């Protein structure tokens, strides 16, 4: 049995997920493939935009947060995926070289009514640059239960 | 002036964004980097999960939808990015070889109170496999206005 099951994810629990470093080359590769808007690809276009500089696609920041969540929680868990997010916010632009601190907080947890041995855990994930939240998402994670 | 500005994105407008093809190799590369959960990497683990098979990370499907949105709308627009999504749902798993139809619908539009010549457009994006919605997101897009 993995170390983390539904029963371990209790409301109020906060788990630190380590640091995310925004690598400029990978940030640009991601933008070229998935979000080739000028302010994600070009310094001058970024500076001329309301974002204030060449900045990461929110999908890149979110994908990096996901990786930190897998490394610190899901890899040793009974995770069965997620049906989605009730919010995914990018309150501040993220720039090359930024170092973000990543964490999650368990908001609520209940057993599935339709599936045995499955629990639904509502989680808020955040990425911080210093004291500033640059990404926040609230989603439901599906986790196998330890007890029948 | 780009072809699409705030004024063009009126509530009720639906724009077709073409097809998304789920390439297995790229799907696996994305999962290895950003979402290395067993059911996103391995056939047997996928089959054993509640997802029913090796399937795409929702972040991969969402990133592909973003690319279709850039290609069909944002590239020729006054887009100034997005502060985030009020929902991002993955109601059904997405599998290698799936061909998804992508579209958006404008839900509401208003001018920014705090920034001149900027409008906020609420948009719902969907990806369909046949008649089935496999991804839905509602978000705010910021667009420059054509008129002062």
Automatic annotation (TrEMBL), chains A, B:
Which positions fall inside the MaoC-like domain?
A: 19-113
Write down the Pfam families for this protein, in alphabetical order.
MaoC_dehydratas
Q: Which SUPFAM superfamilies match?
A: Thioesterase/thiol ester dehydrase-isomerase (SSF54637)
Q: Which domain of life is it from?
A: Bacteria
Provide the leader sequence positions: none
Family, according to the entry, reads as follows: Belongs to the enoyl-CoA hydratase/isomerase family.
This protein's name: Acyl dehydratase
Source organism of this protein record:
Crossiella cryophila
């Amino acid at each position: 049995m993995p170390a983390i099951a539904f029963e371990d994810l209790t409301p109020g629990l906060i788990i630190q997920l380590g640091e995310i470093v925004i690598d400029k080359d990978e940030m640009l590769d991601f933008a070229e493939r998935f979000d080739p808007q000028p302010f994600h690809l070009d310094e001058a276009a970024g500076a001329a935009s309301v974002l204030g500089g060449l900045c990461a696609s929110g999908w890149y920041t979110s994908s990096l947060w996901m990786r930190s969540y897998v490394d610190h929680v899901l890899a040793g868990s009974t995770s069965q995926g997620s049906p989605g997010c009730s919010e995914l916010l990018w309150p501040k632009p993220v720039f090359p070289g930024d170092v973000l601190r990543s964490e999650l907080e368990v908001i609520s947890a209940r057993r599935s009514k339709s599936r045995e041995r499955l629990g639904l855990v509502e989680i808020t994930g955040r990425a911080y640059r210093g004291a500033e939240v640059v990404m926040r998402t609230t989603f439901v994670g599906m986790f196998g239960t330890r007890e029948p």
